[in-house]
Amino acid sequence: MNVFDSKHNNKKKIYHYIREKGLATKQDIAYNLQLSLPTVAQKLEDLVVRGLVGAECKVANKAGGRNPVAYTYVKDAKVAVGLDITKRHIKSVIIDLDGNIIKYVYRRRLYQRNDGYLKTLGETVEKIIDSIGLSRDKVIGVGIAVPGLIDFEKQCVVRGTVIDNTGMSREDFSTYIQYPTKLIHDSNASGFCEIWMSSELRNAFYISLCNSVGGTVLIDNEVYMGDGLYSGEVGHLNLVTDGMQCYCGQKGCADAYLNAERLADYTNRDLGMFFLRLEQGDGVLKEIWDEYLEYLAVLIHDIRMMFGSTIIVGGYVGIFIKDYMEVLCEKVNRKNPFGEDAAGYIMPCNNNTEAVATGAALYFVKEFIEAI
Ligand SMILES: [Zn+2]
Asked: Which UniProt keywords apply (predicted)?
């Protein structure tokens, strides 16, 4: 490690210490991180000047004498914006450096591949920032989550069939957005959000059951991208030989059986209504749901055999899965050759419908915190 790294690391260590404790004095920091007081003082000054750490309050000195200054963590020193673009809506969020949602806006808007739509994206970002009277210089970036196969390095959509976005780049989506942007695969965004929120999880497979089915491999708190574009694309695992038509052109893909729209189509495209009527005992829906869970169990079993990790059931359907975990686990257990109990490795997602937008914004938060 060179001298620069070491100095830089001290600042980061101090920042993370205060972030974790919420509040700390110079003496606490020096003692616990084994740094000299002048070093701590110098790094703190820099963090205070940048507004990342506050120095307004004092704590009582138990030993008597002057009360030392308590340095506090400023979680909204910076914020990030996340956009979740789908066929029928644009969801936007503003999150703080802890990943808390400060503001969420849902807007119904049909996706269209034209300049008018891109303008709408720009307006959506400006509106959500204005709605809370936020100063523009606080915004570290805008994460844009879209369906489709994304080349994260090249920041473009290689193949977009869920919405017509093949060939579109980060620059295209950002035409009317005046902040740094990133283009992110929607299920990677929600998977990343999930693991960020569960501090005890380091490895997991996240299944996104939205209007298309995707997945994310999370290894050591990072999204594993593989060597190509297809890591985690479990929506196109073949569940049924020569089965139902998938939008990808193949037959029998998991997506054809497990996309959320398939359920919502029974209740006028309202997934919440599907689960409400299911709860009320609708016989037809009960059969459909049981079949759905059967297919989901196959998918979960295959993933478990492949990765042996925790499997998080997320996406639009994941929001409702909590109440059906017992029956889902039973179905998965019937397939397990090792007598494992699925209740020990299947988890319903924590997050709700804002997980995609939040996860997209979190890419900026993570980068910002790591660069301090
Ligand atoms: Zn497919």
From this structure: Carbohydrate metabolism, Kinase, Transferase, Xylose metabolism
Distance CA 145, CA 142 (A): 10
Which residues are placed with Cβ below 5 angstroms of ligand 1, an ion?
236, 246, 248, 250, 253
Q: What is the CATH number of the domain that holds 108?
A: 3.30.420.40
Domain stop point among 54, 73, 92 = 73
pTM for the model: 0.83
The domain in which residue 66 lies consists of: 3-73
What is the SS3 assignment for 332? helix
- 178: tokens are 């005046």
363: its two tokens: 């890419």
| Interval 102-152: pLDDT, tens | 999 999 999 999 999 999 999 999 999 999 999 999 999 999 999 988 888
Are 178 and 232 in a shared domain?
no
Last residue of a domain, one of 40, 73, 106: 73
Rounded to whole angstroms, the Cα distance separating 372 from 35 reads: 18
What residues does 245 pair with on adjacent strands? Answer: 251
Distance 196 CA to ligand 1 centre (A): 29
